[in-house]
Design goal:
Radius of gyration: 23 Å
Keywords: Metal-binding, NAD, NADP, Oxidation, Oxidoreductase, Potassium
Number of domains: 2
Low-confidence stretches: none
Shape: globular
Subunit structure: Dimer of dimers.
Binding site for K(+) 1: 27, 93
Pathway: Amine and polyamine biosynthesis; betaine biosynthesis via choline pathway; betaine from betaine aldehyde: step 1/1
CATH topology of the largest domain: Aldehyde Dehydrogenase, Chain A, domain 1
Strand order of the largest sheet: 14-15-16-13-12-17-18
Bound molecules: NADPH dihydro-nicotinamide-adenine-dinucleotide phosphate
Domain Aldehyde dehydrogenase: 16-472
CATH architecture of the largest domain: 3-Layer(aba) Sandwich
Length: 483
């Protein structure tokens, strides 16, 4: 099986190759086979991408918001028409089951392009009357934005960053994760076909050094990263040394709190969505599942039964609902955490190891009797490992849920509406859920507090992170100077 992209990079409206860069093998996670190769961007490629973006941004920003929006909306429609093809590609890039990718990945990318395409014409300023004088404000683009992606949602991340950036009149240079280099190239190709001028959306491949070179370049005005907290700190520091704008979508160790009055079937469903979708490789996952003592055994029993219904297999088979990890490296990291859970005395309810078949498959794993000090309750695992912790009271669970450096998401299951809102109000997290988990509609802001991030993606909030306001004072009378 070979799925060689046309070329490694997409710059100035065309595919561009430079085989002098470090080769990056594209590995299909379901088999471990190498299905293609791309080359990391050389300094010449980075230069070409930035020059191209810099020049094209002026042309794009000079167009009306309505015209920009119409092009983005057209790209959204093209993505939906090509959903099958893009979903298969996403499955090859990440290993996620087609059952998921057909429903979530290209579609959420299209949602973002449609939503921000719709907003583009309404990005206006204000008029501020000051007696005879007045001030008006103009919402302007930032300039050239760099997007750096993680490997779990390569199409979605390329669109979630690209759509608001382009709607506001910016140009983008996007660097996908080296683990999943293929999907963003297709996004660039479709945007170009939809009418985005050459150079407005570029993709360059590479490892951390390429990301670093982009972040440090003076032509770049904004950096938006989706990645881990350690990388976020490095990238934020580099951007800060040039006073660049940033959006940081980082990791989490989010709490999901299940009170004993919750509907157990819904709570189990929520906990499954919070831990096993995309084989657990979701930043907002609720991996610390706090279950009130009275319903713990009932919860664990139904959870184990329902996990037994997972269909583990070929991700391209539509019946498959649980696929491999995105890379051998991530599989090894997660195996390390499974071993730590056992070593530190957590009770293994199910799973706990590798599935004996080609590719990077791990068993859906649940640990019970997990305590707050255990490594699996403190560190982000980014794999199919749920930690179930017991609790007695509301006050206790809120304090324990907040006792973490992270603050991306939080969820509560309860049939007491007042308690649901009261508890969510006290949880330190950016994206929260009551009687649900992991919904991410483009209409709602998405992002974290504490070490989980800075800024928000999606919704009207994202516009503030991809634009800046110019204010213009207009004097209608004479200027009165002191001398
Ligand atoms: P990493 O932090 O390792 O990498 C993220 C991206 O940054 C990659 O493209 C990486 O390149 C690049 N990078 C690494 N070092 C640097 C550097 N010094 N300067 C510039 N760029 C750099 O994350 P993963 O790809 O391993 O993704 C998993 C992480 O992402 C998890 O922690 C998860 O929580 C988080 N995540 C957060 C989301 C959110 O919205 N909050 C959503 C999805 C994931 P390379 O390809 O070489 O590694």
């Amino acid at each position: 099986m070979q799925l060689q992209p046309t070329a490694s990079h997409f710059i100035g409206g065309e595919y561009v190759e430079d085989t002098n860069g470090t080769p990056i093998e594209i590995v299909y996670p379901a088999t471990g086979e190498v299905i293609g190769t791309v080359y990391a961007a050389t300094p010449e490629i980075i230069e070409r991408a930035l020059e191209s973006a810099k020049a094209a941004q002026k042309v794009w920003a000079a167009m009306s918001g309505r015209d920009r929006g119409r092009i983005l909306t057209r790209a959204a429609a093209m993505i939906m028409e090509r959903n099958h093809e893009l979903s298969v590609l996403e499955t090859y890039d990440t290993g996620k089951p087609y059952q998921e990718t057909i429903a979530v990945d290209a579609t959420s990318g299209a949602d973002a392009l449609e939503y921000f395409g719709g907003l583009a014409a309404s990005l206006t300023g204000e008029h501020i009357p000051l007696g005879d004088d007045w001030v008006y404000t103009v919402r302007e683009p930032l300039g050239v934005c760099v997007g750096i992606g993680a490997w779990n949602y390569p199409t979605q991340i390329a669109c979630w960053k690209g759509a608001p950036a382009l709607a506001c009149g910016n140009a983008m240079v996007f660097k996908p994760s080296e683990t999943t280099p293929m999907c963003a190239l297709k996004v660039a190709e479709i945007l170009h076909e939809a009418g985005v001028p050459a150079g407005v959306y570029n993709v360059v491949q590479g490892m951390g050094e390429v990301g670093g070179a982009l972040v440090n370049d003076p032509r770049v005005d904004k950096v938006s990263l989706t990645g881990s907290v350690p990388t976020g700190k490095k990238v934020y520091a580099a951007a800060a040394s040039h006073l660049k704008h940033v959006t940081m979508e980082l990791g989490g160790k989010s709490p999901l709190i299940i009170f004993d009055d919750a509907d157990v079937e819904n709570a189990v469903g929520g906990a499954i969505l919070a831990n096993f979708y995309s084989s657990g490789q979701v930043c907002s996952n609720g991996t610390r599942v706090f279950v009130q003592k009275d319903i713990k055994e009932k919860f664990l029993k139904r959870l184990a039964e329902r996990l037994g219904d997972a269909v583990i297999g070929d991700p391209l088979d539509e019946a498959t609902s649980f696929g491999p990890m995105a890379s051998a490296r991530q599989m090894d990291i997660v195996l390390g955490y499974m071993a730590k859970g056992k070593e530190e005395g957590a009770r293994l309810v199910c799973g706990g190891g590798r599935i004996e078949r080609p590719g990077f498959y791990l068993e859906p794993t649940v640990f019970a009797d997990v305590t707050d000090d255990m490594t699996i309750a403190r560190e982000e695992i980014f794999g199919p490992v749920m930690s179930v912790l017991d609790f007695d009271t509301e006050e206790e669970v809120i304090a324990r849920a907040n006792a973490t450096e992270f603050g991306l998401s939080a969820g509560v299951f309860t049939s007491d509406l007042s308690r649901g809102h009261r508890v969510i109000g006290k949880l330190e997290a950016g994206s929260c859920f009551i009687n649900s988990y992991n919904d991410a509609p483009v209409e709602a802001p998405f992002g974290g507090v504490k070490n989980s991030g800075v800024g928000r993606e999606n919704s009207k909030e994202a516009i503030n992170h991809y634009s800046q306001v110019k204010s213009v004072y207009v004097r209608m009378g004479d200027v009165e100077a002191p001398f």
